[in-house]
Amino acid sequence: MIEFLLTVPIVFSLVLALLEFSVLFVQIQRVSALSREAANAAFRDCSTLSNDPTPQLDACIDGILNPISQGGASILSNFAANGTLIVSIYQNGPVLVTQRTVGGGGYFSQYPGRPIDARLIPPPGLPVNGVIPPLTRIAIGEAFYTYTPLTIVGTLLGFALPGNLYETTIY
């Protein structure tokens, strides 16, 4: 009976730790999916717009960010308060065309108008699928989320669990 009383709290703690890590892993995957969806939608829907970036491109990005952030709210608890979704579009090299943010997490872009790595940009005149693009645009989707532990074991494991989740996708 003594052995049972000694092992039950340990086994129960291990089960709660397993639950905490599995929930964390699922939330990491969901943040990654939000980042991918934001960058993919921005590149697919907004990257072929005209060279006049401001009104038309901002409206396009706002049109895709709002439904994606609502989807984020449905898959991540309290995303409106703890999460931020940012889409940046660069054109013809390291020129930031626009950057739009949605969410209340208070996060800022890791690409705040600074030049991006030149290795991400194809050289001018290089054919892409046999066609020379008139303008090259890169869409960057960033998703931030503050993870809050579910159980007391997750709170005790705070040193091992990341508090802020961040994912970047570049198209």
Give a topology summary.
Layout: H1 2-46, H2 54-75, H3 79-82, E1 83-91, E2 95-103, E3 137-146, H4 152-156, E4 164-170
Antiparallel strand pairs: 1-2, 1-3, 3-4
Helix pairs in contact: 1-2
Quick recap:
This protein is of the alpha+beta class and 171 residues long.
Folded structure, characterized:
- The structure is a single chain.
- With 171 residues, the protein is α+β, with helices and mostly antiparallel strands.
- The protein is 44% helix and 20% strand.
- The chain is built from 4 helices and 4 strands, in the order αααβββαβ.
- It has helices spanning 2-46, 54-75, 79-82, 152-156; strands spanning 83-91, 95-103, 137-146, 164-170.
- The protein has a 4-stranded antiparallel beta sheet.
- α1 (2-46) runs antiparallel to α2.
- It starts with a helix and ends with a strand.
- 28% of the residues are buried.
- The model has no long low-confidence stretch (mean pLDDT 78).
